[in-house]
Write a structure and sequence with these properties.
Layout: H1 26-35, H2 49-58, H3 64-77, E1 96-100, H4 112-120, E2 152-157, H5 162-166, E3 169-172
Parallel strand pairs: 1-2, 2-3
Helix pairs in contact: 2-3
Keywords: Oxidoreductase
GO molecular function: oxidoreductase activity
EC number: 1.7.99.4
């Protein structure tokens, strides 16, 4: 989601004419899955978990159950949002990426050029036009799309692969 590849895709019906009732965009289904607890997403909320707990305690929450109840009520009121609902808001970006013994930016990344463009903000050969605007309903579509979301990339690796080449820090892994 954070690589913004979803911006370059249309809804299901654009690819499969037999998909009746599946006109929603993939990102819309991902947002619903996160809300229902079926899919993990980090960061979880549009505020730091430490900040959320501090707010709950300031409003009188003393136990873990009371903090959980505060979070549930804040989500229902719309005071707290899932980060996946607005993945391009600066407060919802991942800032540090630790990669351990994998080529996450290269061969493991579906949409390598989108990782370079939106995660790293570096040179890219992405040629596709953004087509998701008007097709998504569950996420905020921000214009222009942010580039260079990450502040730090640390790679623990035993070979010089694409991830190591684009990392800020490369540490040897045994």
């Amino acid at each position: 989601v954070h690589s913004d590849q979803w911006r370059y895709e249309r809804g299901f019906s654009a690819y499969d004419k037999t998909a009746k009732g599946l006109s929603d965009h993939t990102i819309d289904h991902q947002v619903r899955a996160v809300r229902k607890g079926w899919l993990p997403f980090f960061p979880q909320f549009n505020k730091s978990p430490l900040e959320v707990v501090a707010e709950a305690e300031a409003k009188g929450a003393k136990t873990e159950a009371e903090i959980v109840q505060y979070v549930v009520e804040a989500l229902k009121r719309g005071e707290l949002r899932f980060a996946v609902e607005d993945p391009d808001a600066p407060e919802n970006w991942p800032r540090v990426w630790f990669i351990w013994r994998g080529n996450a930016i290269g061969t493991s990344a579906k949409g390598h050029e989108y990782f370079l463009k939106h995660y790293l903000g570096t040179h890219t050969n992405a040629i596709a036009e953004e087509v998701a605007e008007g097709h998504v309903t569950e996420v905020v579509y921000r214009k222009p799309a942010p580039e260079g979301k990450l502040d730090l990339v640390v790679d623990l690796n035993f070979r010089m692969d694409t991830s190591a080449l684009y990392s800020d820090i490369v540490l040897p892994a045994a």
